[in-house]
Amino acid sequence: MDHFVYRDGQLYAEDVPVAEIAAAVGTPFYVYSSATLVRHYRLFDEALSWGPHLVCYAMKAASNQAILRTLAAEGAGMDVVSGGEYARARAAGVPGERIVFSGVGKTRAEVRAALEGGIRQFNVESEPEMRVISEVASAMGVVAPITIRVNPDVDARTHAKIATGKSENKFGIPIARAREVYAEAAALPGLKVVGIDVHIGSQLTQLEPFEQAYLKVADLTEVLRADGHEITRLDLGGGLGIPYTRSNEAPPLPSDYGALIQRTLGHLGCEVEIEPGRLIIGNAGLLVSEVIYLKHGEGRDFLILDAAMNDLIRPAMYDAHHEIVPVKEAEAAAELHPHDIVGPVCETGDTFAKGRLMPPLDSGDLVAFRSAGAYGAVMASEYNSRPLVPEVLVKGDQFAVIRARPSFDDMINRDTIPEWL
Ligand code: LLP
């Protein structure tokens, strides 16, 4: 459920007409609904209310300070994967004890910064990384809390580029070697093992892969405890999918997911952490764009938008489907014809949809990409020297620009000229 609905003939973001934001900030832009974002966070929080837990928002999905602050005010933790994300989480007022650090390539500098600023735990991805964390913590005279990410060799049944839980993926240590690696962790100075971490992929639309992985984690918890390790915390990753099309079957609800966690792991008495990103922010965001031209090609009609692959890369990168709807409701109700919906970037890959049924639209009409909140703005680039698009946050009848569009000068002035030129 989201808060982008047609009212009085036009699309609203909560109580603000999308067209009003477009008039104020220009297109393209991302707009997020605070109410949707908070609602989704609370669904997860409630789904785990049967036991001690922390919902750590995977901020890679969308990391604007205003979004982080909105979630932090709800009590959310953060899952970070870089020094930059750690700094963003801290700048948004998230205390270190609510930040978990994931990612396969944490550098010494990142480990040091997190230990200095405070960290709930590092989710260790390999033995070399574990040794580095041990060295850095020991040199600083502190103890780093860690979980070890295990790779359960489970097929997440999602797009290959976002599946992470198969043995051929770069993530975690093979679950079969977990005892050995935990034994080394226990022997290393500067580390305190607190639990187990697992994350099998993103945009999962079924619960079975989670179940398979979590049952393996349950067994491993017992085995590691028998080996003498204190396993008090289970980080179960993110990955619950969202509906991208109106027609496809709705993925499981956070409540079903929470019940699955309780059923598979609840008896262990551990504190549970989850790292959802997409489900919290995905359907809380739109990318709004203006039609530049309607071009009649050879047997095809092209709708050329002012948004492009640099603003929303998901269709080009993962063949992802985003619903694209007109902002005026009358257009939404008109007779539909197939269109190729493209951006102005000079690549054929700059195609958002092929043969998509759309009402008659023309220059100046606004369209909105639904479900664009997650992995949208954060994956944008300035390819073709197109400035990053602004981000806007709506709350009730108010809206605010939470990241402004850079000017061409801002863009150009980031380059520096060597003295020999
Ligand atoms: N935790 C870890 C360790 C992760 O690697 C990820 C996502 C998450 C949590 C959050 O997963 P979510 O709940 O958002 O599914 N750019 C791709 C998605 C990449 C996901 C990477 N890892 C896309 O646009 O579909």
UniProtKB/TrEMBL annotation:
Record PTM N6-(pyridoxal phosphate)lysine, positions in chain: 60
Residues engaged in binding pyridoxal 5'-phosphate: 239, 275-278, 375
SUPFAM superfamilies: Alanine racemase C-terminal domain-like, PLP-binding barrel
Residue span, Orn/DAP/Arg decarboxylase 2 N-terminal domain: 36-281
Pathway this chain belongs to: Amino-acid biosynthesis; L-lysine biosynthesis via DAP pathway; L-lysine from DL-2,6-diaminopimelate: step 1/1
Catalytic class of the enzyme: lyase
Gene3D superfamilies: Alanine racemase, Lyase, Ornithine Decarboxylase, Chain A, domain 1
Subunit description: Homodimer.
Function of the protein: Specifically catalyzes the decarboxylation of meso-diaminopimelate (meso-DAP) to L-lysine.
Name of the molecule in the record: Diaminopimelate decarboxylase
Gene name per UniProt: lysA
